[in-house]
Amino acid sequence: MAQRMLDMHDDLKEIQFKIKSGESLGEYPEKYDDFALLDMTDESMREEGFEAYAMALLASEKALYEATTPEEQKLAYQQVVNNCVSCHQTVGCPGPIPKIKKLMWQD
Description:
Blueprint: H1 2-21, H2 50-66, H3 70-91, H4 97-101
Helix pairs in contact: 1-3, 2-3
């Protein structure tokens, strides 16, 4: 799980650059489809509600790749980041929140 989150962080940095540059985001990366099933570093952190947050994250990721205008992409991108922060605040793993917040959209 931790490695997938680090990969997602790197992908989001690249996506923000692509949106700002007017580049295509390409196809939705199916590597994220199993996100809710990945082993956590500490399985005790898999609290009730995690799967709902994971599914919301996947839905927002797919919406990001389906967005057709730069404004829609920007809003969808920010929703992905917001979903990450919300999950980390609620599920009980707040450590990465400062790093995630650095992904917030910057004009």
